[in-house]
């Protein structure tokens, strides 16, 4: 917003302040107020991309509620405050790109330190001037950090062996320091690490054994002083590898031919070593390959497919010196940067000097800035498809957040001298040529607060926005007209409000009187078993006579299902709306708590992937719930063939994604969060466009702010879907829903019920799976509909991997619902579909699949306990 000046000490009087985000204002200078610790309710302190300087005050350690602390890309100096170690709720800690000095603070006696931040997931301290050794006590098995980033500092000494205890670690950057000595022998314990960057140090001793680090995607050990070492066996065992950079690492010997066949391999930089023998690239190299740089080695001969389509650099090897023919790969070459920019499929328009032509060839003022990825596993030489997918990913997320965005472009992709992947991002407005202040403000929040999460291969990032000045033009006359119009309009509106206020007050009193006269819960719970009167928000109250009329007196011809709770009927309201009516057994108070629970929950949650409660009836001792009518049955009906709908692979992916989004809403967006507690294929409904809708909230639990991280409660749910940890401990968490959802995913792949003929689907899949075989060796137990379909089962293996992560026995090892949604979206993208497309466009309508044909949707929906 182009703010300038200094932060005033008066900030501390905002005693209720929870979020302070002043990012991307380069005009903000000076220091942080020394008494900022008085903002005791602060949860997010985000000041990135400003020009703040001075010391970070020690009082910051008083912000006990702080979850996110981002002070990166400023000019802060002095030491890292040891008091940060008191911030036990901190999740995100980013001090990257400042001028911080001194050692890494760890606890000693009564003095706190970073080692106490056992719940913090991100340690981002790159591009500072930190010195001294890395304290061994910084790391322990209690630490849950996933990103340790201390690159571009002045650290010295050994890498402590305690680092090998942090098994949660996923990304490690210690490059561009002055670290020395041997690498710790237990580095191989870090089996979850995707990115390992230790380049440009003085590390010595033998190359580390990385055999067990099977998840490694990006490895850079370049420019160290390792002892001369034969090419290690782990070169060919890291099947997830995309980038290997080992320039000047003392490598000796011959590269095995199978190494170049690693499926996702893109970039290989092995120049300035002593590699020798014959280089056999052949024709079986990875089809993702972009660059192989082997300059200045001792390779005597090599073979490669004559029509290879990647960049090959071989100058300075005997096989180039001995030839009489000048070959392109024998020329002295510099490493190539990426020339990627967003493709345009129309004729760019000629715009004014201050405007830019968008990818859709419209002139506009885009919101621009630099995306900087701190630990990317995609190199700047990577396949253009990676950047196209990233571009689509960003656009979809912004549109999902209902931001006024039409298109985006990426350009100037490069790996800078600090080892960060940079790219220019331009976001173009929808329907007009500029963003207003609200649009700019909202876009800034999305990136500064890490609301946008990039695909896994790009790792953590931060965004530096450029100043945005076009808020609808600079015409002063226009602004004066707007101001005058706003004042006149405000006066008129005020007069209208005064008149309307009196009328509204009268109507409110009248409505309150009517409500008192017709309280639908006036006789609530005469038996004392259902708790307090339900607290509802906006649900419609139906009389028993209304529901009798719309179901033809609950005739059997309208009966579409039954269960232990009662019967379900199809009905039609006087306005023509078709509804589903779940009626408890007449005169019975069975399930009164479930009845109350469901109407309370469904009146406070609203999402397209959750079934909508229209109203209820608590009249004449009846307990009746009224829902929107969903026409295409339950997911179980479709998988079993009962509904007559055959779901191919693409539709199953979209149904899975929709269900996951509904659950994500309950876990992460509902306030307080809700645990469903009975996720199963019978509680996922499919509408006329096969949009999935999660239903049946009778057993759901409000999670609230449980300090324990769980709710102790009696075990309820459906056998086969129950979380084993919940079953054994009575401790319910949102991870219990994750387990149940994983079982549903396995149902999607196999069309088998969770427990069938005495066998448990989770156990069967785990025993059958063979990760190196076609379709993971699961064809014997897969749904024949999938195997007989002409649709390619793109992403099937990733789908199964995700399902198995969800059904891990230990809940801490399961992903969150947000992570599940993200992974399914990636699979949908991999399958060539837009995860945000209207389901009607993804799924062609089925002939005869009307509400009448599949009207037994609610047959298995009625509560059965």
Q: How much helix is in the residues?
A: 10-25%
* CATH second-level architecture of the domain at 635-849: Orthogonal Bundle
CATH class of the domain at 635-849: Mainly Alpha
- Fourth-tier CATH superfamily name of the domain at 635-849: Transferase(Phosphotransferase) domain 1
> Which structural class is indicated by helix and strand composition?
alpha/beta
The CATH topology annotation of the domain at 635-849 reads as Transferase(Phosphotransferase), domain 1
Outline type: globular
Radius of gyration: 31 Å
Give a quick account of the main beta sheet: strands, pairing sense, barrel closure.
Answer: 13 strands, parallel
Report the average pLDDT across residues.
83
Measured distance between first and last alpha carbons: 57 Å
Name the features.
865 residues, alpha/beta, Leucine-rich repeat, LRR (right-handed beta-alpha superhelix), Alpha-Beta Plaits, Phosphorylase Kinase, domain 1, 13-stranded parallel sheet, 7-stranded parallel sheet, 47 strands, 20% strand, globular, disordered C terminus
């Amino acid at each position: 917003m182009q703010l300038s000046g200094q932060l005033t000490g008066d900030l501390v009087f905002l005693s209720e302040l929870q979020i302070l985000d002043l990012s991307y204002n380069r005009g903000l200078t000076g220091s942080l107020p020394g008494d900022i610790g008085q903002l005791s309710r602060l949860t997010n302190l985000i000041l990135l991309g400003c020009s703040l300087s001075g010391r970070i005050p020690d009082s910051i350690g008083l912000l006990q509620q702080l979850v996110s602390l981002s002070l990166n890309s400023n000019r802060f100096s002095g030491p890292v405050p040891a008091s940060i170690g008191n911030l036990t709720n901190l999740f995100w800690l980013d001090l990257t790109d400042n001028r911080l000095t001194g050692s890494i603070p760890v606890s000693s006696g009564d003095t706190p330190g970073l080692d106490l931040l056992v719940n913090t997931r991100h340690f981002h301290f790159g591009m500072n001037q930190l010195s001294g050794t890395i304290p061994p006590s910084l790391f322990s098995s209690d630490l849950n950090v996933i990103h340790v980033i201390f690159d571009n500092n002045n650290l010295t000494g050994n890498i402590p062996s305690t680092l090998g205890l942090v098994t949660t670690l996923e990304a490690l950057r210690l490059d561009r320091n002055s670290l020395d000595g041997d690498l710790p022998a237990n580095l191989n314990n870090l089996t979850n690490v995707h990115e390992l960057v230790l380049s440009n140090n003085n590390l010595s001793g033998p190359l580390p054994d990385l055999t067990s680090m099977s998840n490694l995607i990006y490895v850079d050990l370049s420019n160290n002083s390792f002892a001369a070492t034969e090419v290690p066996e782990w070169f060919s065992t890291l099947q997830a590898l995309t980038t290997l950079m080992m320039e000047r690492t003392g490598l000796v010997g011959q590269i095995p031919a199978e190494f170049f066949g690693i499926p996702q391999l893109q970039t290989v930089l092995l120049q300035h070593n002593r590699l020798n023998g014959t280089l056999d690239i052949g024709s079986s190299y990875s089809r993702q390959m972009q660059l192989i740089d082997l300059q200045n080695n001792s390779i005597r001969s090599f073979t490669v497919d004559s029509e290879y389509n990647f960049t090959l650099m071989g100058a300075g090897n005997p096989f180039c010196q001995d030839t009489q023919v000048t070959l392109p790969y024998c020329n002295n070459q510099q490493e190539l940067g990426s020339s990627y920019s967003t493709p345009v499929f129309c004729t760019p328009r000629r715009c004014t000097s201050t405007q830019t032509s968008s990818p859709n060839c419209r002139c506009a003022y885009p919101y621009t800035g630099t995306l900087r990825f701190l630990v990317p596993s995609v190199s700047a030489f990577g396949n253009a498809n990676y950047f196209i997918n990233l571009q689509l990913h960003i656009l979809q997320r912004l549109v999902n957040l209902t931001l006024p965005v039409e298109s985006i472009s990426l350009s100037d992709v490069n790996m800078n001298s600090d080892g960060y992947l940079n790219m220019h991002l331009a976001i173009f407005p929808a329907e007009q040529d500029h963003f207003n202040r609200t649009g700019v403000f909202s876009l800034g929040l999305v990136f500064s607060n890490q609301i946008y999460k990039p695909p896994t291969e790009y790792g953590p990032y931060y965004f530096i926005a450029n100043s945005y000045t076009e808020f609808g033009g600079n015409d002063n006359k226009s602004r004066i007209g707007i101001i005058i119009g706003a004042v006149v309009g405000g006066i008129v509106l005020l007069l209208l409000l005064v008149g309307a206020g009196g009328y509204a007050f009268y109507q409110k009193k009248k409505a309150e009187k009517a409500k008192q006269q017709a309280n639908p819960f006036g006789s609530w719970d005469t038996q004392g078993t259902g708790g307090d009167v339900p607290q509802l928000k906006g649900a419609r109250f139906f009389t028993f006579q209304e529901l009798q009329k719309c179901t033809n007196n609950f005739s059997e011809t309208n009966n579409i299902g039954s269960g232990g709770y009662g019967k379900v009927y199809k009905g039609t309201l006087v306005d023509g709306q078709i509804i589903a009516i779940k009626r408890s057994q007449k005169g019975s108070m069975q399930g009164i708590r479930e009845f109350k629970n469901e109407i309370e929950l469904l009146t406070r949650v609203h999402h397209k992937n959750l079934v909508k409660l229209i109203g209820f009836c608590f009249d004449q001792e009846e307990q009746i719930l009224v829902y929107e009518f969903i026409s295409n049955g339950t997911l179980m009906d479709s998988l079993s063939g009962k509904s007559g709908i055959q779901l191919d692979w693409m539709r199953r992916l979209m149904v899975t994604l929709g269900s996951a989004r509904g659950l994500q809403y309950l876990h992460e967006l509902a306030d307080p969060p809700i645990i469903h507690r009975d996720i199963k294929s019978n509680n996922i409904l499919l509408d006329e466009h096969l949009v999935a809708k999660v239903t049946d909230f009778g057993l759901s639990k409000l999670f609230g702010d449980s300090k324990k991280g769980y709710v102790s409660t009696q075990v309820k749910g459906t056998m086969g879907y129950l979380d084993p940890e919940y079953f054994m401990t009575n401790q319910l968490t949102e991870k219990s829903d994750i387990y149940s959802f994983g079982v549903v995913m396995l149902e999607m792949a196999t069309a088998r019920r969770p427990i069938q003929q005495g066998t448990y689907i989770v156990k069967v899949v785990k025993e059958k799976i063979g990760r190196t075989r076609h379709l993971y060796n699961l064809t014997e137990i897969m749904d024949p509909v999938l195997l007989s379909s002409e649709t390619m089962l793109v992403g099937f293996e990733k789908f199964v991997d995700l399902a198995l992560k969800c059904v891990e026995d230990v809940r801490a090892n399961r992903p969150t619902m947000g992570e599940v949604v993200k992974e399914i979206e990636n699979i949908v993208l991999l399958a060539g579909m837009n995860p945000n497309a209207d389901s009607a466009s993804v799924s062609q309508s089925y002939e005869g699949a009307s509400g009448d044909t599949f009207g037994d949707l609610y047959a298995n929906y009625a509560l059965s306990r």
